[in-house]
């Protein structure tokens, strides 16, 4: 299944890097759409089962035992799930998505839609050497007040913190085309996202959600780490979150596949573009 899950290499050239003017070639493997949907369907109803399902998905995606860790948390019965893809440099990009849900609904949109993509991003990046070290984190207990992300940031050493070039947070995809929370985003991370979207001819729109809630990027932003949040929430679809309507049927699969394609390419682009491409 692992081989069948992969299409051939997708080679893509950016003709004009907006930062350096130099052409960028990015390479990654795209996971088959059917696999993306299968992983989305694995949403369980209880948080401990969701933790186990995410752990299993990382294993299936090729994240080996020595790359895969559980970080137990104070104040949460379930741990953060952390899969690390070492690059040749210490420079690190955190890719985060909480896997926990509220009691209401099935938590497919919020946020199995994001968490279940993390193993596919790992899979797409891992077959080629990377400069950047990628750390994929399924955060626990976001819904209880960002417990997992706050704890993760609190345990970083100064060196680890300073090595983080970007925190890419993903929460609640598939309700519509990909949205970026621009008012909170690092400007260079955001302009890179629009560049990738434009180059791939994939939609990316701005919907700021500061009135709605918190994000696992918050604790990173407080430490001056460049952050960007992706979601799919609009005024019309907002009531689906934390409601009985948050089920698989709330997900628009074509839009969800587009979000996967965009974010997959975006991560590969950030690796190829390197560290000068954030504000720090
Ligand atoms: Zn959420």
What topology does this entry show?
Elements: E1 6-14, E2 24-31, H1 33-41, H2 47-60, E3 68-71, E4 80-85, E5 92-98, H3 108-115, H4 118-126, E6 133-139, H5 147-154, H6 158-163, E7 164-170, E8 179-180, H7 187-200, E9 205-206, H8 218-222, E10 227-231, H9 253-273
Helix pairs in contact: 2-4, 4-9, 7-9
Bound molecules: zinc ion (ZN).
- Radius of gyration, taken over Cα atoms and rounded to an integer in Å: 17 Å
Run of helices and strands: EEHHEEEHHEHHEEHEHEH
Structural category is alpha/beta
Helix content: 25-40%
Write down the overall geometry.
globular
In round numbers, the mean pLDDT is 90
Overall CATH class: Alpha Beta
Identify the CATH homologous superfamily.
Answer: Zn peptidases
What name does CATH use for the topology?
Aminopeptidase
- Put simply, the count of helices is 9
Distinct ligands, ions and cofactors found in the model? zinc ion
- Tell me the number of structural domains: 1
What's the β-strand tally? 10
Strand order of the largest sheet: 3-4-6-5-7-10-8-9
> Uncertain segments of ≥5 residues (pLDDT<50)?
1-8, 276-280
